[in-house]
Specification:
Helix content is 81%, strand content 0%. By secondary structure, it is an all-alpha fold.
Length: 172
């Protein structure tokens, strides 16, 4: 258990900068979505999705960020992250304009931390391929650690499972 905690701590430290960059990009894109759609109103039409439907949907988003980032040295992963943030900003402001803060606090906030953390971690993982490009162009080498990538990926899966459990429970 001690070794697992140590590996988790090392992984968090390894991806800290990428995670912080992704966080800034994501929250700015949420603000852009709120700004663009500040007058919209979105009706709430709840559709209860199962745990597996939610997990597969969120997993596809995360995989899209990772794969797009890997093939583009981290750039396309940011575009997926930005699109996700703008859509979330639109949903937040649209629901708020129509119903106030209550539905946001009861339906979005409980799973928001877990789902967003998984998305941000996936973006940080997708930045790793930038190191390949960097290593070709520079003399000092930036090391890419596969064990941290795999640990981060497992952490993402855990976060997505927790988010899907919470969200599927709220949909009942």
């Amino acid at each position: 258990m001690k070794k697992l905690m140590s590996l988790t701590k090392e992984t968090v430290l390894y991806y800290k900068n990428g995670f912080l960059i992704a966080m800034v990009v994501y929250f700015l894109s949420i603000l852009v979505g709120i700004f663009i759609f500040h007058n919209s109103k979105i009706p709430i039409n709840p559709k209860a999705l199962s745990f597996l439907e939610l997990l597969s949907h969120n997993s596809l988003s995360v995989l899209l960020v990772i794969i797009a980032g890997i093939i583009s040295f981290g750039l396309l992963g940011n575009f997926v992250l930005i699109a996700n943030g703008i859509v979330l900003g639109r949903i937040l402001i649209g629901v708020f304009n129509n119903y106030g803060i209550s539905p946001i606090l009861t339906n979005i906030a409980p799973h928001f931390f877990f789902e967003t953390s998984a998305l941000l971690m996936a973006t940080a993982l997708s930045y790793e391929t930038y190191k390949l490009y960097y290593n070709i162009r520079h003399t000092e080498i930036k090391v890419i650690r596969l064990k941290y990538f795999l640990t981060g990926f497992c952490f993402i899966i855990l976060l997505l499972v927790v988010a899907a459990l919470i969200e599927s429970y709220l949909g009942r």
